[in-house]
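anyone seen this seq b4? input:
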Amino acid sequence: MAGNSETHSQNFETLDCWKACRELRLFVVKQVVPVLPLEEKYRLADQLIRAGRSTTANIAEGDGRFHYQDNAKFCRNARGSSKEVLDHLITAYDEGLLEVDTLLQGRILVE
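predicted toks r here
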């Protein structure tokens, strides 16, 4: 692994896509989950947190693969997880658990 720093100098933390997913993940845990009712803690809140965490984790894992096709697969997974977050946000809005402004902010972060 010592020689990899010469061929792979960019860390996943410098990637714009990882930064955007980090912002989405933080939005979920700091602005969405706290407003959900307690009875959703182990249902919708848990799913939102897992999907949000999956976005950054997949990019990081793909970055560690050092092969374009493997990396691309994990980036596609991250994009899928971000759409999963959006679907959960829509669900929360549809069920009256989330304000429209929060949903709109989430949409912007996902895109």
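The helical segments are 4-7, 16-32, 44-63, 68-94, 100-110. Residues 15-110 form a domain with the de novo design (two linked rop proteins) fold (CATH 1.20.1440.60). kinda curious what u guys think
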